[in-house]
Every structure is written in C-alpha cells, then in structure tokens.
C-alpha cells in the first residue's frame, strides 16, 4: 500500500520534470498562447502528435532546432536558436510546421546521429523578452484650506445708444402776408371815407399802409413748436463676471497666493511643489 502511494506521488513529479526539461515548445497561437506541444527529441511528423500545421509561436530552451514545413524534415526548413519566437509568421511557417529536430552545436548532425541534408538553412535569432513596463511614480497630493478668496473685477464699461425724442422750441415769429393784404384793403376803405378831393386820396393811401401793417402783426405766428431729433444717451456698467480670483492659502507654514479663473472651494489640491492643481 505504501509503495502504491509512493508511485502515485512520484508520477506527477516525473511529469513535471519532463515538462521542465522540454527542449522546444510549440504553441497554437502567437505570443505563446493556446495549446502547446513539448519536445525533447526529434519529431518527424507532427500529425502523430495531433499538432500538424498548428504551430504559431515557439520557445527553444536548449540548443538549436531545425523546424520544417513538411513531415520527415522536408520542404522549407529554418534553424531556431535558443530563445523566444512569439510569431512564426515572419519566417513563413505560421500554421505550417510538420516536423522538428534538435541539432548538435556544429549543426552537422542531429542528436540521433543522422547526417544533415547538406543544404544551407536560414538561422533565426530569438526575440528578446520584453522589458517590464516602468511603474508610474507615486504622485504626492496635498489638500490645504483656503484662507480667503477675493473676486477682482475688471474696469467698468460705458454703454451708449441713440434715442429719438420730441423737443419743444420757440416759433419762427414771421409776419403774416395774408393778414397784411386784408389789413391794407380794410385800411384803404376806411381812409376813402375821410376827407374830400386830394385829401381823400391821401387818406386812402394812408389807410392802406396802416391796415397792411396792422394786418401783418395780427396774423404773425407766436408760441412754440414741437420737433423730433436723435439724442445720444450713455450709462456706465460694471462687468458681470470677475476677471480673476485672488486666493490665499497656507502650505508648510507659509502663506501663499494664487490667481484663479474660477471661484475656489473650501480647500485646494496641491502637487508636491505646493502649486495648486488647477
């Protein structure tokens, strides 16, 4: 019973050890993802492994391996040195690998002693493992109370516009021509009634003149008249929004001041240099 338990515990350890010692590993997807095929010895036909024409990336853990597109190491072959190959697409072997075998250092024989076929094969260098992304630096943020905030207004602005209004002004006061004519006729008739002979003629002439003068004064216009004209009116107005806010706060025991375009709250957020994060 104890022997069975020991064997049961030893089997997973042996399996893990076999996986760890794999010389080459092929993956069904790029970037070492998907299903994998682990090899320690030559594999003349991936179809027996259920992995024919499925490899898209590879990792070579030991030595160099010859990887071919057809079974029995036929067709186009390349040599992969030890390292990582996240994509076989650039080699023309994406999903088209059918056999692979390890090579000795001098690449004259494979590890089972068979002669190489004597034709040159392209040798590919591994892709360096990506460097870990740098971690962002920790940003220090302070929160301090606002001591005072004063709104600073801009200079006042003058607004002007034109209005049409009615204005009273004195009348022109010109003599009435019609009144002069009527007054002259009436004065001539009255003067004709006075005297005889040449005296009557003189009286008539005098009555015409006097009547004309009186009539022109009677018909003369007087008082005021109403006319319309454009008048400019102006007013001074303050700007509605402040030009800026003058804010005072304390950081590390010192009073500091900053100009802001908007009204602050009760506190300010500062960076490591003590400057507000606007």
Shape, per Cα inertia axes: elongated
The strand count comes to 14
Read across the widest sheet, the strand sequence of neighbours is 2-1-3-6
Count of DSSP helices?
Answer: 3
As residue ranges, the low-confidence spans are 1-21
SS-based structural class?
alpha+beta
Largest beta-sheet details: 4 strands, antiparallel
Could you state the CATH homologous superfamily of the largest domain? Answer: Crystallins
The CATH class label of the largest domain is Mainly Beta
Order of H and E elements: HEEEEEEEEEEHHEEEE
Per CATH, the architecture of the largest domain is Sandwich
Query: Over the alpha carbons, how many angstroms does the gyration radius reach?
Result: 58 Å
Query: Averaged pLDDT, please?
Result: 75
How many domains make up the 3D coordinates?
3
Distance between the termini: 75 Å
The CATH topology of the largest domain turns out to be Gamma-B Crystallin, domain 1
Beta content comes to 25-35%
Helix content: 10-25%
